[in-house]
Amino acid sequence: MPVPTHLAPFWSAFTASVAGVDEGRFYEAFSFGDSQAMADELADLVLRGVKRATTSALWTFEEHRKPLPEPGDLSLVTRGSGEPVCVIRTASVEVLPFRSVTAEFAAAEGEGDGSLSFWQAAHRDYFQRECARGGREFSDDMPVVCEHFTVVYPRAAAG
Asked: Is the pTM of this model over 0.85?
């Protein structure tokens, strides 16, 4: 997948500033969540080092015939407006039922109070909305993709 044209200057600044970048590892450009406000809030958590993980419904990858991210993949995170904020590198990916997500993973997501109960409530609401848009039904057995990542290029580094 190519870097979107409007994000190419940010991506170029990243590749010029970090030695040994394998540009073939570009995975995607995206914003977190399902609203501009949520995207902005979660991008800020990433920039502050609080959010180091994310979760997606497995069926969305299957529906779009999109491969799962792999360790070493690079993604460009944007605000809800599409403004680039950072580049992240996938550290690990695990697929498991929603009900099996651990407290450690919930804490790495960095949302709310960092507890598993907050994570479950917030993500159940999110996945119920996402499933409804996709004509699907949410279940605690629904497979989710749990991804840990590290920030490798923050916006502040771009000046």
From this structure: yes
